[in-house]
Input
Amino acid sequence: MSGRVVVVGSLNQDLVVNLERMPLSGETVFGDDLERHAGGKGLNQAVAAARLGAAVSMVGSISADSAGDFLMKVVNEEGIDATHIARVDGLSGTAVIEVERSGANRIVVIPGANAKVNADQVRAALEAIPDIAVVLTQGEVPADAVHAAMATGRARGARTILNPSPVQDYSDEIYDLVDIAVPNEHEIELITGRPAPTAAEATAAARRLAERGAGTVVVTRGANGSVWSTLTRSGSAGSFTVRAVDTVAAGDAFCGVLAAAIAEGRSLSEALRWGSAAGALAATRAGAVPSLPRRDEVEELVNIDH
Ligand code: ADP
Output
């Protein structure tokens, strides 16, 4: 039994400036070129779920200008339902990313339209969308929108997943509404104050967040895989060995595919394996949206050694 994945989250235009070296304060330098990519954690995770084959709706905000048109085109190309993406005044979410030839980077994120996603919009969307299996959200939309996503999702009988990235100061009331929280090892430390460099420490920190209300807490650990804890049980999921070239969006691939696998009715341990395969594949390719894998690739990796 498959249901729909609803992603309540950000959509950004990523403006990537490639240059030899960053300017100093007050200095002007020439750049090599400028690229525009679709991004934002919400859109990345929606694309990851859609490429796995899930029916996906996105709830978010973009501007009424050409950047909004650009983002809407990507949403449509990926087959994501855009009925509940609002067009608002002002700027679309924008990340300005300067990348030196050495690989060093510097990033400025302007939330723009993402900051206008609000609780009323989220509630109305989640009440209108049929057959919701999973509601997935992240830290790039305001906390009241995250709260509304988790509360309305739970009220509709969906599984609720929160990727608390970037970390915001959420109340225990929000964590109480979360079935699965998915921070990485740095985020779980910021949330709980507990360093999590080892699997045992990450599991202990995950349990601490479960004590604050989240049902299951999964901590992703890059090439070391992931660990999870509830109040009473814990476990781990291994990683797949790949040649990593760029781990940007590995976490987004993991979260989107985890959500899609759960929407297909898979168990948590199966869904973690699918998410891990997607994260590993995303790490083998450059960029965010272009690096997100398709179902056949994920399925092939999941079935290795199985
Ligand atoms: P984030 O991008 O949020 O920091 P992680 O780096 O922890 O997230 O990656 C998410 C998941 O993707 C990991 O738990 C792992 O399963 C997979 N993954 C990430 N990097 C690699 C890698 N280099 N090799 C294999 N799997 C990886």
